[in-house]
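User: Hi! I'm working on a homework problem where we have to compare a predicted structure to a textbook description. Could you give me the structure for the chain below?
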Amino acid sequence: MSYNVSTIVDRTGRTSEDFPLVLLWGVVGLTLVGDVVTTLYGMHIGLTEGNPVIDGLIHNYGPGAFILFKIVVAGCAALYARRLENRLHRMIAPLCIAFPWALATTSNIVLIASIS
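Assistant: Happy to help. Predicted structure tokens:
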């Protein structure tokens, strides 16, 4: 009996073809956490938020609003990606938010390290 790897289905109903997409959404989660943690820590030690929209959100509504905003952005991207038929196109949505969040996290780490 032989199996085609692309047709193997795990207990959740996902095929092995879904692995890159699941991995990309995992990266989105990590970059979301990285950006939130480094941004809030940086602001705690005296740095300022460079994005005026996010700065106003944090100052007017608190860090919870910032976290909620990030989750809503990720959720909207996920809902949009689900509507796309092409598997390759579905990978673009997580890349479009993970990449800038990874850059923001890296920038925050460099700024935090420069004043520590």
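For your comparison, note the following. The mean pLDDT is 88. The chain has one domain: 15-115. Good luck with the assignment!
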